[in-house]
Amino acid sequence: MKSILKGLMMKKILLLSLLLLFAACTKISEPVSEGFIDNKKPEAQRGTSFFEYFKSKISFELTGTSKEVYLYYSTYEGKILRSANQSLPWSTSYFSSTDTLYYINVTNLNDSGYVQLKIYKDDVLIKTRSMEGYEANIRETGPTK
Q1: Which residues pair with 74 in a beta bridge?
Q2: Domain for residue 96, yes or no?
Q3: 10-residue block means of pLDDT along the chain (145 residues)?
Q4: What angle do CA 131, 134, 136 make, to 5 degrees?
Q5: Is residue 135 part of a domain?
């Protein structure tokens, strides 16, 4: 009885070894799912450039009762633009790669008046700041990730 069990065990081991050897030597010509779930490729591969796919939309919005402000703000290229005597309300948006920083600096130019800054990333509010009075200042910077 022991020799029969030993013989069956040896056959199973041999069969398993052959299967593993066959599997190791088999070349797979095409991946089954191309690495994507349900063969659906991400948007970046469906007509959208790779660079556009990894951009974030950054928006600055200024409102308030102040008549004018002095303003520095970043652009999509990472440059800083200046706008002197800017009236309110004011807003701008740009698309930026995910590894850059946004920057905005606002100074109230009136003796009185209230200014509120809102910063959005992909249309979601991420920061709100406010100030009141002459030469009151808001300065914000942060990653676009």
Answers
A1: 80
A2: yes
A3: 69 64 47 40 46 73 92 85 90 80 89 91 92 88 73
A4: 35
A5: yes
- Look at residue 18 and tell me if it is in a domain: no
Write down the pTM of the prediction. Answer: 0.61
Q: Domain containing 113: what range?
A: 51-143
The reply to whether 8 falls in a domain is no
Dihedral sign of CA atoms 134, 114, 141, 76 in order: negative
Give the CATH number of the domain where residue 61 resides: 2.60.40.2880
User: Do 70 and 84 contact (CB within 8 A), yes or no?
Assistant: yes
Instruction: State the total domains in the chain.
Output: 1
Residue whose entry in the numeric block shows the structure tokens 């199973």: 12
In angstroms, the CA 50 to CA 97 distance is 11
- H or E element: which one contains 16? helix 2-25
Instruction: Give the residue from 125, 118, 54 showing the smallest Cα distance to 92.
Output: 118
Other C-beta atoms closer than 10 Å to the C-beta of 87 total 11
